[in-house]
């Protein structure tokens, strides 16, 4: 599907549309140009690449006025999209919705692409298809998109505010000083970043990496364990059930690196707890630049109130098999944290009707308090009326009596320090989490 973006006639059509825009802007019209390109001499149908001399003269001229040459989404973790010229010289970028299997839910919101343009080009992109459906309810994700990031080299990212003229539209003003600029919703963490981390840590003492299964498309699911098997406490963390939410990957990377620093703090922590991490649950979604569901349209943070389907959600089935094995050996995690991103950043404490729910809630409150003390966390937790059945937090508590929660990380800003989010700040949060866990297991009786 994404190949069609690069087909010659696609680029040609866009060039022609830009040509129309240039002419219209040149004579002072602000209206949207016609979406239908004019008939071209010598091209019998639209699937034939343009080759007439008139085209080769027009395209560079049109591209030269606006400066845009290509929006390339065929980069690692690039989001599927198509685009066309919009009113007033903007470019409309249509994101592709992820669709949930056998459900009305749909999600778009991940964006990550490379804008190629002439040096010095200034452009405004408008994101389209932000009308998501979540838990059966419609709602635009536009109001959550306060920030975006850009990078000239795909490694060093800079944050910028989006423009939201009426709350429902999201505009990204760009200045391309070189020949290309990568644009993303939040700082990306790609499969290659995880591969690098695994390579860095897998032979270190105290680290175990095992493959517990494969994704729908056959990518291996690595489970990372750090610390002694006989440590008195065990904590489990999972990141990236939803592929756009890279924040969790940065957090677990920061936590892992802190625990492997081989200093007093690390030794003290690992005396007290062992960490098990599934760093990238939805690898297929990350590889394909999708927003929420796996390759069979399943939401990996749903349906935990029943056994996972190994065909439709092998990512969850593999994790559940591992967990059942641990339970059988009387070593279930004492705490499970499911990391996500959204526009609010709350801790989600579920309220299923389990006998010991009050004890669970008091332990979660103590965790919240420790996060406030030892990190920049300040966002708070869900209200007593909150219940979100089927999430990992709810399902593990309900079915296995494991203290589990969903930890959202605000994708836009870190309120306490009044800064936009970044991979570096999320890694720092992961480092701080090592202290939070140390204190938590020191004060809370399992
Ligand atoms: Zn999520």
Describe this structure in words.
The chain has two domains: 2-184, Sandwich (Immunoglobulin-like), CATH 2.60.40; 191-443, 3-Layer(aba) Sandwich (Aminopeptidase). Helix content is 30%, strand content 25%. It has helices spanning 8-26, 53-66, 191-201, 247-259, 264-272, 283-287, 314-328, 357-374, 392-400, 423-443, and strands spanning 68-72, 81-85, 91-95, 98-99, 106-107, 112-117, 121-128, 131-134, 137-140, 147-151, 158-161, 170-176, 180-184, 207-214, 220-226, 233-238, 273-278, 335-342, 347-348, 404-410, 413-414, 419-420. It has a seven-stranded mixed β-sheet, with helices on both faces. The protein has a five-stranded antiparallel β-sheet with strand order 1-6-13-10-11. The protein has a four-stranded mixed β-sheet with strand order 2-3-7-12. Helix 1 (8-26) crosses helix 2. The N and C termini lie far apart (50 Å). The protein binds zinc ion. Zinc ion binds at residues 242, 245, 301, 340.
The number of E-state strands comes to: 22
How many discrete structural domains?
2
Helix percent band: 25-40%
What is the level 1 CATH name of the largest domain? Alpha Beta
How would you classify the helix and strand content by structural class?
Answer: alpha+beta
- The strands making up the biggest β-sheet line up spatially as 14-15-17-16-18-20-19
Note the quaternary state here. Answer: single chain
Described by strand count, sense and barrel closure, the largest sheet is: 7 strands, mixed
Low-confidence runs (pLDDT<50, min 5 residues)? 1-65
